Amino acid sequence: MALTVSDILARNLLPGMRLVSGGLGIENVVTWVNIMEILDTPESIQPGELLITTGYGLADRNRYSGLIARLKERGVSAVAIQTGYYIDRIPAFILEESAHFGLPVLDLPRNYSFSDILHILIDEISGDASLLKASGIDADWFQAALLTEMKAGGSNFFEPGRKNYLICIGPAGNFPSDSEAGNAALRTIRGWLGTLPCRIVSVSRGSSSCFLMSYDKGSSFHAVSYDLLIRLTLSSENEGLNFFAGIDRVPSEEALALSFRHALQGIVLLRSIEAVRGVCPYNNYDFISSFGAMYRSSRGSAMTVPALKTLIAKDRSRGTAYTRTLRVYLSENCSITKAAEHLNVHRHTLNNRLDVIRQMTGIDFRNPFTRASLYLSLMIHDYYGV
Known about the structure:
Blueprint: H1 5-10, E1 18-21, E2 32-35, E3 49-53, H2 61-64, H3 67-74, E4 78-82, H4 92-101, E5 105-108, H5 114-125, H6 128-135, H7 139-153, E6 162-171, H8 180-193, E7 199-205, E8 208-216, H9 222-239, E9 243-249, H10 256-272, E10 278-281, H11 285-298, H12 306-318, H13 322-331, H14 336-343, H15 347-361, H16 368-384
Parallel strand pairs: 2-3, 3-4, 4-5, 9-10
Antiparallel strand pairs: 1-5, 6-8, 6-9, 7-8
Helix pairs in contact: 3-4, 6-10, 8-9, 13-14, 14-15
């Protein structure tokens, strides 16, 4: 996998930097960083480099007209210009040429030193190998295999009006990557995903699997993501097998490599917050990072709800599903209609289950602080096994 201009912006690696023109080249791969204060030797820039400059003399149109075309021809990935030193704003002719040639131009705040920029970006550029090692999933292999499976099946996942998602699942480290028990657990997950109303292709290697799922425009992926978290929790509790899963939206086939990177970053995040299992959708990356920091700061001493332990114990001893009912009810914002649909039960059945939960635990679902505490306690249980 490679770092792209889009990746730098989406992950906010340089806060305050923004794309001002040339969005057609947003997925250009960045292979290195070249810092050039005076743009007098563009022929020395190598393909794939992100050019950083303070823009000295750039307002001189007679001298720099055609610069973007020359950089495009050199294969430069993007140009980041620090405004505030020699120019207050990027010249209009630069922006026009950028839009015409599809070469991204980025406005970079002046508060960054060249040393800051190099440390941040070069660490990321050289981080692909470490990302592979930390996540345990070879994204290049899985991406090629998924595309082969998709094309062999004859389905166009990326036709207009469809929503596509990537799920990467790998061992959390408590069993070998080629464990037969781990493989069996993944086969169970594949079987469940195969029953969902969507197009799906999957590829497995050892005890890791990647899934590409395509939904009609009106369908929702929210329930799938949450149900996967529940299934990983149950796999951990019932079979002693812990998995991490990273998820990202895939807007196009060209964006698949970036989605793989995002999914693997989610898995690495789960390791870094010391979770024992769990799911990290990339759009919730910041929240899960904060949640992990909060939990580790107190080790959950003040964030668990006794009522949840009562429900979990009841389910384990009687084989009931009160905890799952509570999970889904909270995840659907306490909507009886949506939760009943998610659980595939009648509204009256759901109301009866909630009445039993109230009687067993004394939970008051009308209290927003109680609901928030319950949801947080469920997250601690799902991610940390507490």
